[in-house]
Write a structure and sequence with these properties.
The structure is a homodimer.
Chain A (H helix, E strand, L loop, with lengths): L9 H12 L10 H10 L4 H12 L4 H26 L3 E2 L2 E2 L1 H4 L2 H21 L3 H24 L5 H26 L4 H28 L11 H4 L5 H9 L4 H7 L5 H12 L3 H19 L7 H11 L3
Antiparallel strand pairs in A: 1-2
Helix pairs in contact in A: 1-4, 3-4, 3-8, 3-15, 4-6, 4-8, 7-8, 8-9, 9-14, 11-14, 12-13, 14-15
């Protein structure tokens, strides 16, 4: 059987995408075409898919559910636009990042516009609990990003890494799973959904960070190693550094030496080390936690899909 | 009598400022000190003052009212942070703008953090109507800013100017006046408060744009003329250009000539022309509209303060 776990909500995702094409200000900013292209370019639509699976599993009314799923994809896109500007990334979702086509000024404001639009959609659910959760998640995400800027070189171990990715990545997945359940009014169930979402997000980010060491990039055919190159210590690097206190490159990096040759050598050593497998084990631990939290929900196609989806991460 | 119209809510404003010092994430980003300094530096606190005057006039409960007033000041500060980055302004509220002390990346994220925090405070009122209004206003403001970037040189007349400042400035004043009244549940009164706020904001922005031609800057002792220098046509310039079709500098500017000498000559001509008085008359028209909309509210000290406040603009 090779059915994607999100196929259950494929039609809903099309509704979400239609809602995302309806920009809220008809006068439409000069950047409307750019924005529409970026929103249409897609990506995996994972956050809306999770919200939709929980919402459909619990028979949440369609209208607020679609608003909510769109809000999560739009806020995610807003953070990507500002992140790409911050990181000077050139390509996003296979098309040029907005800041490569527009001045930084416009790029900042386009991100702001999407934050505002996402807030409108969250408010359109009519649920104050949803809006509160949405705003809380956004605060945590941005706070995490600000802290990441300043600890990029710090490498404060696996615990620090988990704290960072919990804010930067898991908080939005957590909110995307909690909010649809809040619409049912069952706050205990909402917490179980949040547990799933948080664990999903942690596993997802760890897998992404492993990929930076192991996956071949489409353009170069080689793993990119971008994180280490820009001084960001992710879980594989952290595990490696902890287990090889006698590696002179590790010591040099730990002491704040930012020589690119040291980083390049470490990259090669890390990707063939057991730090990769250790990191996979961490991801699997989170996946186990996510699967466990699904026990609170009714058996059936939606729960199976949520289980398959999180199991497909690693 | 020389009592400031906002003295009625002076104590509430101190409560708002206390709330603004309580950053929502205790881990506190590395920028917390910078942010606290900017939030403390103040400015006129006009948006909270308006929200508080309407709220107190209609006996809105204190707790959500203070949340709301703080939300408006924080969202206003967020837009200033991003605007100063966009415009490369160096000084804000008498202290260095954030982007002069931190990388652009951090500045973008600090603005985002304030947007998120403001949304949290708006949601803390517990009113979905307030959150919807808040998110709508933010969408309109950012859309207006994006459009202003692209029409800076266009000069599409007084109507275009009014559309621009309605979005850029009046929308937030409008929301700051509408939201406290929404908390009473009286939506007809909320619309009258919104009329006041919108007219207040229009008059306020026109007065600000006149000041750019007439007020002496603290540092140079001369009017700054910054708007015209960067190609932004505000109401005095628009009135002047419309009434002097035969001025060769006006024609050159209208044809897109961006020679700084032309702008400098025009600046001197505009500031001694009757375009200034014409602009004041436009501001007074909005002030009249604001005063008129106050008739819907109970007579007393708060209504008097609102009337005095808008009358003090020009």
């Amino acid at each position: 059987m090779d059915v994607s776990p999100v196929s259950l909500v494929a039609e809903d995702i099309r509704s979400v995408e239609a809602r995302m094409r309806a920009l809220p200000v008809p006068a439409a900013a000069p950047v409307a075409a750019t924005l529409e292209r970026l929103l249409a370019a897609g990506g995996k639509r994972l956050r809306p898919a999770l919200a939709l699976l929980f919402g459909r599993m619990l028979r949440v009314p369609e209208e607020p559910l679609i608003h909510l799923a769109a809000a999560f994809e739009i806020v995610h896109t807003a953070t990507l636009i500002h992140d790409d500007l911050v990181d000077q990334a050139r390509i996003r979702r296979g098309i040029p990042a907005i800041h490569t086509e527009w001045p930084a000024a416009t790029t900042v404001l386009v991100g702001d516009f999407l934050f505002a639009w996402a807030a409108r959609l969250a408010a359109a659910t009519g649920s104050i609990a949803v809006v509160q959760e949405f705003a809380n998640a956004l605060t945590v995400i941005v706070d995490g990003e600000i802290r990441e800027l300043s600890v990029a070189e710090a490498g404060n171990g696996a615990a620090g890494y988990e704290t960072r990715i919990r804010a930067k990545t898991a908080a939005l997945f957590e909110a995307a799973c909690r909010c649809p359940v809040l619409l049912t009014g069952d706050s205990a169930a909402a917490e179980r959904a949040a547990d799933y979402g948080s664990a999903f997000g942690m596993a997802f980010q760890i897998a992404d960070d492993i990929m930076d060491f192991t996956a071949d990039s489409a353009s170069t055919g080689k793993p990119s190693g971008q994180d280490l190159a820009r001084g960001l210590l992710t879980l594989p690097a952290i595990h490696y550094l902890a287990s090889r206190p006698d590696d002179p490159d590790a010591s040099a990096l730990g002491a704040g030496n930012s020589d690119p040759d040291i980083r390049a050598r470490l990259f090669e050593k890390i990707r063939v080390s057991d730090a990769i497998e250790q990191s996979r084990a961490s991801a699997r631990r989170h996946i186990g936690r996510a699967v466990e939290s699904l026990c609170a929900f009714p058996r059936g196609a939606h729960r199976d899909a949520l289980e398959n989806l999180v199991n497909s991460i690693v």
